[in-house]
Amino acid sequence: MAVSLSNNAVKLYSLSTGQYLGECRGHTSTVNEIAFADFSSPHLLQSCSSDGTLRAWDTRTFQQVSFINAGSSEEIFSFSFSGESNLLAAGCKSQNSVKCSKLQVLLWDWRNKKQVACLEESHIEDVTQVRFIPGTQNKLLSASVDGLMCIFDTTGDINDDDHLLSVINVGTSIGKIGFFGHDYQKLWCLTHIETLSIWDWKEEKLEADFQEARSLASDGWTRDHVLFPAFFSTYDYTALF
């Protein structure tokens, strides 16, 4: 189990015993997202930060094994690896000056760490989430504080004009997204005001809208069993259905 801290470190614990194992240090600003790699690389932990970097760590040695620097003016809020290609996507904000910022989805070929695309015309506020859609041929979904979810085709020479497939308007600032269901056609979206909506992303259709997501998720809880309420955003929302 990995936990990011306010001192920019990532600490690791045994999931079975809770024992502290060690920590990974290198980020110089807020760590915004962490994720373990797939089952083929069980000892690889990945992270992104407001320091403009994406890093990979070996959890056996707690040492950095890979590093991508998007630039000192970038803040990286989210990242996702494609299961169908060699692409790595990141949701960013580029702060060029005090009054000028660009909201971007950046893509790299993770093998050679070469940036292959910069999408900056689809969102007007911070890109809070990027996720490659499981089981699809290189489709990427981005979500933003502007309330929009954009779906891109990431094959070929990627650009905003030709590769933006569809836009879903949630109507309020988006915090987290995820996929579930048969062929991962269903999409859940948690907003910063803690509403939860369910979408068929292929049809761009709203299927359910829960205005009181926190109370629905916690109806069966008692005070004795709620140990880590701060982890609400990682709740398995598929359990509601």
From TrEMBL:
Keyword annotations: Repeat, WD repeat
Gene3D superfamilies according to UniProt: YVTN repeat-like/Quinoprotein amine dehydrogenase
Matching Pfam families: WD40
SUPFAM superfamilies, A to Z: WD40 repeat-like (SSF50978)
UniProt xrefs under InterPro entries: WD40/YVTN_repeat-like_dom_sf, WD40_repeat_dom_sf, WD40_rpt, WDR89
Coiled coil feature spans: none
First and last residues of every WD repeat: 24-67
Keyword Repeat attached: yes
Record keyword Repeat present: yes
PANTHER family assigned: WD REPEAT-CONTAINING PROTEIN 89
Protein name: Uncharacterized protein
Organism: Carnegiea gigantea
Lineage: Eukaryota, Viridiplantae, Streptophyta, Embryophyta, Tracheophyta
